[in-house]
Amino acid sequence: MNGKIIFVLIAATIVLAGCSAKHGSYAGSITGNIVASDESLPKKFTILYADGRYSPDEISVNQGAVVMIDFIDKSNSTSLFIIDGYAEENVVNGKTRFFFSADNEGVFEYGLRDRQSKGKLRIS
């Protein structure tokens, strides 16, 4: 009986020693960008155009923010979406997605080139 106990203790010691070995240790080997806050993530907006209006008709961001806009025209038209001073994006089958950096403070109009109604982008 004592022989079995000794064998079990030796086997357990070997297993535990193997589990504590540093094979595949990842401590200190993680690389990549550290995100300090949500400020570094894009500000995401979806702008819908339907019945002659934009929703939302005004968006606000902090100066320096990266902005992502998903634009959807409910009539599925092909046109040009413009943010004065920032972007001109082709709208194909009513949809586009684009990014820009809100570098200049002020109020800028956005909308489809061939429509009269406009929305406003406020950067402060």
Describe the structure.
- With 124 residues, the protein is mainly β.
- The protein has a domain at 38-123: Cupredoxins -  blue copper proteins (Immunoglobulin-like).
- The protein contains 1 helix and 9 strands.
- It has one helix spanning 2-19; strands at residues 43-50, 53-55, 58-61, 66-73, 79-83, 87-91, 95-101, 106-112, 119-123.
- The chain has a 5-stranded mixed beta sheet with strand order 3-9-8-5-6, with no helix packed on it.
- The longest helix has 18 residues, at 2-19.
- The termini are far apart.
- The model has no long low-confidence stretch (mean pLDDT 80).
The biggest sheet, with number of strands, parallel, antiparallel or mixed sense and barrel status, is: 5 strands, mixed
Task: Determine the CATH topology of the domain at 38-123.
Answer: Immunoglobulin-like
Q: Low-confidence parts, pLDDT < 50 over ≥5 residues? A: none
Shape: globular
CATH class descriptor name of the domain at 38-123: Mainly Beta
Main β-sheet, spatial strand arrangement: 3-9-8-5-6
The separation of the N and C termini measures: 80 Å
Determine the strand fraction and express it as a percent band. 35-45%
Task: State the assembly state of the protein chains.
Answer: single chain
Fold blueprint:
Blueprint: H1 2-19, E1 43-50, E2 53-55, E3 58-61, E4 66-73, E5 79-83, E6 87-91, E7 95-101, E8 106-112, E9 119-123
Parallel strand pairs: 1-4, 3-9
Antiparallel strand pairs: 1-2, 4-7, 5-6, 5-8, 8-9
Summarize the structure.
The protein is mainly beta. It is 15% helix and 42% strand. The strands form 2 sheets. Strands 3-9-8-5-6 form a 5-stranded mixed sheet, with no helix packed on it.
